[in-house]
Specification:
CATH class of the largest domain in chain A: Alpha Beta
CATH architecture of the largest domain in chain A: Alpha-Beta Barrel
CATH topology of the largest domain in chain A: TIM Barrel
Distance between the termini of chain A: 47 Å
CATH superfamily of the largest domain in chain A: Metal-dependent hydrolases
Radius of gyration of chain A: 21 Å
Shape of chain A: globular
Largest interface: A-B, 71 and 71 residues
Oligomer: homodimer
Structural class of chain A: alpha/beta
Number of domains of chain A: 2
Helix content of chain A: 25-40%
Chain lengths: 432, 432
Amino acid sequence: MATLFKDVLILDGAMEKASRGHILVSKGRIDSILSADQTPPAADKIVSGHGRMAVIPGFVNAHTHAAMTLVRGLGEEAPLMEWLQEKVWPVEAKLTADYIYWGTLSAMLEMLAGGTTCFADMYFEMDRVAEAASGAGMRAALCRGITADANDPGKVGRSLQENLELAERWHGREGLITVQLGPHAPYTVPMNDMKKIAEAAIDRGLGIHLHFLETEWELNYLRDELKATPESYLKDTGLINVPYAVLAHAVWLDPKLADTMSFSNMTLIHNPCSNLKLGSGVMPLNDWLERDVAVALGTDGASSNNRLDMWEEMRTTALLHKGVNKDPLRVTALEALRMATYEGARAFGFARKGMIREGWMADLVLVDLDTPHYIGADEENLAAYIVYAGSSADVRGTMVNGKWLYRRGDYPTLDREEIVQRAREARKAITK
Amino acid sequence: MATLFKDVLILDGAMEKASRGHILVSKGRIDSILSADQTPPAADKIVSGHGRMAVIPGFVNAHTHAAMTLVRGLGEEAPLMEWLQEKVWPVEAKLTADYIYWGTLSAMLEMLAGGTTCFADMYFEMDRVAEAASGAGMRAALCRGITADANDPGKVGRSLQENLELAERWHGREGLITVQLGPHAPYTVPMNDMKKIAEAAIDRGLGIHLHFLETEWELNYLRDELKATPESYLKDTGLINVPYAVLAHAVWLDPKLADTMSFSNMTLIHNPCSNLKLGSGVMPLNDWLERDVAVALGTDGASSNNRLDMWEEMRTTALLHKGVNKDPLRVTALEALRMATYEGARAFGFARKGMIREGWMADLVLVDLDTPHYIGADEENLAAYIVYAGSSADVRGTMVNGKWLYRRGDYPTLDREEIVQRAREARKAITK
């Protein structure tokens, strides 16, 4: 089954400008890219763009907790710890494997409608998350969130075991799923356990996905409780030696560290909307980009954002750092687009995903430019239109592995009505 | 023609929680509001919500330059003055009255699709803007942007005359249009002229809409060139004595001024996205709210945002101030909703607009809650869902004065195809 995108504007995060032409997709890959003056090849299905549709790479939501759609909107406008302890955690404790399955599927409906083709998820009952993603044909990077419990000394070991079994079963499966180990954060996993998890990652050739320095409190925790600096922590735990490490948030990590320590195996995940909403602060993004440290974008869970919409993260990234640094030249539209697509894919071990190149994964978003807010968009300025003027409402189709998972309001591989109904029932059950 | 919204969630920016019930709209007003257990009255048209639609007040975009849709996306990622002088101003100089008419209509398509029912516009050829708004039945607060020109000493006088004639013709017309005087800013209108304009406003009982302290450069200009403080400027020009003054941006105005000077005739317009994008900084919003100074929200023109989407401004307002102040309790969802609706209406002289009350203007937005991202929304938490999880993609209808101006992709009072075509032609002509 080959699909031809005929006469579309083509843009990815590494192109200086968009090009107008045709894309042939076959066997899950971008088979060929032709310029507008070339005769488009034959195909089973043709999407005619008439120069008023754009094709961009699918977004990668590089840090989320998908099933937290079920706890969205609980106890808003409360201080962080009160919110977590009184509103979120008691409800989360009622989540069953089934609820997590339906909550994840509900998140997938939302993400696919906004052009997200892959999500990096840290939660529990991750086999069901893998089942949800794989069943629909969506890409996902999965880890079991591992936390310690003073009253249950075996918990870290059991969770690590679950995470390793998840990797056995799912890592690399159908090219759709990668698995990482998921130690939650330095303040929820003791140093010794973090070391063991890093060793396990090295043994198995797996990456690690953790929260790192989201809040100033965590930086103080490192200093006061662990007697560590961020540098000594990353070195002593062995995180600098794992195949790759993905550090979510990193709001309070000082970019100067990159002057003396290699970040070549690390990607930072910037979650600007969540960091703003929780009052965590603003990551010094430009200082990282200037040091060539890889940064991707994520939404975080739906309870601290509250959208799972990568257009929002991309736009907020491009606006926020200009504003707080009083410098309109910070973070270009193109940089934001690359962070929202290619950087997230690369971070989680998906090769040849996130750009529009021959032989790369056919994870693509079809964007309608035939609307008032794209008047004036052309090859030269398309990135600025997409990032500053665009939104998820412009998405007309989301393709993963060459197959439509979302097309004009429909989900060919998902039963939207059942998912919404089941997610509603789950929400009711856990908030009773 | 009466319209009944049957079984909807009803929310405005002054309600502690939403209520479930029916709204009867008749003769341009909210005729009656009934609770869900009351029998809904008869009506010509019925919109059935089944408890899965919300009705909120129409947004008021309290500071924009609508026809700048035609210069959107020109010269992005450039320093501010280079961008204005080399990219925007030379192109703007080619705008004709006709182009402004079609550019404004194009902006209206965009705003109506996102639930905006009223916009406050400062530009030129404002008779054509009034014609566009009035013709479609959209509300607007209009002023002629007045700037001085050293080579044309009569310019301010002529522009003021145009603005006064605009007021004669349009102020109060059909209850849809109000007119203000529009001195552009302290750095583009000499002190003496600003005084004359303030006097004219007092004479005619008109409000004033101006840019005030958008950038730090303007604060320095006041000090160095005008030998003025913000306080002395507002007093010496007479702006504190006009019927009402609307100060757009005010990023660099110190809220402590409200401790010693009355702001009772003033509203500040916060344009968070534009201020971020241009690197102007972040307004100290909370310090104003704590002092009970009125603040409304605007998008600014489409060349510095680049969306005309009040959902974005509302959400950015609710997120940004939490983040930069590291305090998750700043600016609640409800406060942001009130600023995006009621405060803008009140600022520009529209009485009984911006809340859902019997006898108030039937300027309403129909929001679809039957989507994955509203699972869990209820009367208690609807404001948080709308502001943090919602977006313009959720709008199913926008009603002004009891009439649908946007309904499920259609514009009953506007010829979308012609507008888009004409706006495209205008864009081509001015960028040739």
